Structure prediction request, 260 residues.
Amino acid sequence: MRSHLFVLICLLAANDLRADLGASAIYEGIFKFKNGYTISGLIEVSGYRFSAYVNEQGKGDYTNDDSLLSVVKSIAYPSSARTYLKGEFTVYEHIFTPAHFRNPRYNSDRYGVIKPASTHILNIDSLASVKFIRAFQNRRAWLTSELIVAPKWLIEKLEKEKYQNWAYYSYADDAMEGHYALSYNPEISNDSLLKILTANRDLLWPRLYIMNVLNQDVAHEVTSHEEYKIQYRKYLKAHTAFRYKLSRMHIIIVRVWSTC
Prediction:
């Protein structure tokens, strides 16, 4: 559960930096740290950054060792003040994009999913060097959906099967965003899924979770940024427990949004 929470913090922070347009690329590399630790894996780069653009052959301006290191640094220390965790970057051992794991309304939108145990949140200041392996265009619907965290057994189910039923709930305060509930249990109906979403609105769309907290008046919610962080982590713990409980019921929650 702790690994689910830690991964979710980073993913929600990254989602706040999404662009309305742009591109997305996956870079594979070998990351060596000052203490001798080495890890191979993937980083995801999206938006208007030049590094987000690679061609179908995986070629781009940043497909070499030195350039990839600069990309990692830009992820760890972005210009946006909305980043929740600074000085860190995420390496995924694998990003799954199951063929059947798609938006129920827009079949072209394929969702991405990762295992928490294979997700590594690393400190940029400890990084010694980067070796570029390859790059490729992102296959998942990065522009309109989050990256899902799921256990291995559930990912295997997503790879083999399509969900049986689904429901969608958008929120009155922001009709452009909402959540899908996708059930792999045929006994859980569309109506039941909708009831789950509506009954747990605060766990999925909390008032405390304000995307640009540093630039908005949240005095009625919290009295300081430190208090916000404390309350935000409390929310994430409850939110993660809720998603984990649903996963045991073979239900996946996907946060989605529209672009303008």
User: Anything to note?
Assistant: Helices lie at 2-15, 65-76, 152-160, 190-199, 201-204, 225-248. Residues 225-248 form the longest helix (24 residues). The chain is about 30% helix and 30% strand.
